[in-house]
Structure formats: structure tokens, C-alpha cells
Amino acid sequence: MVLLLMTTLMAAGCGSGGDSNESQVVPAAKGIDALIAAAKKEGEVTVYSAQSLDDLNNLAAAFEAKYPGIDVKTVRGTDGDLGVKVETEIQTGKGIADMYVSASLSWVQAQADAGQFLAPTGPQLTGKGDYDAKQYVHKGNFFETNAAVLTFGWNTDLYPKGLKDYPDLLDPALANGKIGVVEPTAPAFVDFYLWLEETYGADFVEKLAAQKPRVYPSSLPMGEALASGEIAAGSFVPPITLVPAKKKGAPVDFRMPPSGAWGARYYGMILKTGPQPNAAQLFADFMVTAKGQELITPSAGSVLPNIPGTLITNDKVRVQDPAKLTPEKVAAYQKKWKSLFQ
Questions:
Q1: Fewer CB under 10 Å: which end of the chain, C or N?
Q2: By the 8 A CB rule, do 282 and 130 touch?
Q3: pTM of the entire structure?
């Protein structure tokens, strides 16, 4: 899941046209009971998402148990593939998806500017619950649902004293192939290195390169190398896979950086072209309740505090700046990176 997500963060697109179902939506002022009744009348909701399929299915099952009579259809894919599907549905007016969850902020902003999303009407998303709607519902009617995060980790057998923050990776004991780093083959990976420089100093990446680390194509093989003992520490490992590995006895551990984490915030959108807008409103609202967050954000970031199993809140997760990740700037940074690491 993390690899697919991180390699498609910068997928972009635009669309226009399409029929709107805005007039069918129950206004927020009518309350949750009216929304539930309208959603049950529609009877189903289709959700496109780049989130973990297991987590989506768990969320869907809990929603169906809470609101019997409404079936949830989940379609899991990458941001790039699902974004194209949504654009096609918008352009043709033949909507299938009612709600879409994506981590591609550039795509989301483009469609929001084009007015493709319905305003949220559920109680959580309109500020009548624990969800901070002022902070997390953005102009253009898209809203934050959770976040995927990556961090540093270590093999507890090979490096028992552990790491407290990224600068600990500069320990001389970790030099010469004992650290794993990710090759910045995608814009999102370039952003990770930009974040390191912004957070820990302009020369931090250069110092990391001086450790002569091993290079990996993504977070998943780096996490596997950490667990197997191929490396003693990793700079770009996914808690979502390390947590279950650790529970099974793998000698791995990790921490979240004290100043905030690098990752990808997920954004939810209720599509104007979706045929079941009220069921989508109800599902979106359920996703950001405490129960919804517990199911959709294990070992990741949550939009609510103190959710069991989550590691950080969304406000402490990096937001990518598309202006810094143009093709020209990405290519220039990749060239710089290769001169340091290869």
C-alpha cells in the first residue's frame, strides 16, 4: 500500500462537465436522521480509494453494521489510475464513484478549483463532532481523512540502543552499508529528501550520503532488509508493515520524529457526479469518527487525537508543495542526489 501510494503522490489531472446531483443532497440543517433516511433510500455507496484494501473493507463492514440496508462497494487502486477513472466519469457525466479518497494533493486541488465536489453535510464534517472541520475541511469541499507515514527504524539485534531522531543515523557505527536509504525515483521521494533538509539542515542529506548507505527502490524492501538483518537501520520504513512484523517477533522497532513526520495526507471528496450522494455523505462522516479512524488508520496518522493504534495526528504530517516538485526541479534534485550517493 505505501509503495503504491508514495509513487503516485504527484499524479495530476483536470476535468470539467458532468451532471451534478447537488440538488439531491439532504442539507446539513435537517440533521443526521434525515441524512440516514436518505442514505438508506439510496441503498448503496461506491468508494474509490488509494487506502489499504483491508482497512477499507474493515471500515465498510463496520459502516454496514451501523447502518443496515446500505451496501458499501470499495474500489482500491493507485491515485494515478483512480484519478483517471474519476476524470472520465466527470467528463462523461456517467458517475460510478460516490466518494474518492486520494493522496494526490495536486489532483485534488485542480478538481476542487473546477468545482467537482459536494460540500460535506454530515455532523462531523460540519463541525458538530470531534473532527476539527475548520482545520481539515479545505476550500473546494475536500477534507482530510487520515495519513500514511514513513519514518526511521532499526534492527534491535544489530543496533540495540536504537534511534531517537533522524540525526542519530549519522552515528559512525552505522557507516558503510548499515543504513538503508530510498532512491528518489519519484517526485514524492524527492520531497522526502527536501523535508530532511528543511527539518535537519541543508547539509543533512550530504552527511547521510557520507555514511555510504545501501540504496533501496522503495520503503517495502527496505523494511524487509531491516527485519532480515541486511541493514541495521533504515531511513524510510513503513510502520504499517513494521508493527505486524514486530508482533510476530521480528527484531525491528521505530519511532516517530519528535518534530513531525514525512508522509502523505489522504483527502476525501464527495463527487457531484456520484449517483448516491447522501450515502456518500454518511460514509464520509463515519470515516472521521473515532471508530472510523481506528479502522482506517492503523499504524498511521489520524485526524483525531488519542485513537488506539495510530501514531500521529494529521496536523504533524508533511504537506507536499507541488511548486517545489516540477519536472525540472525533480530532475535537478535527482542529479544532485546521484552525485552524493552513487
A1: C
A2: no
A3: 0.89
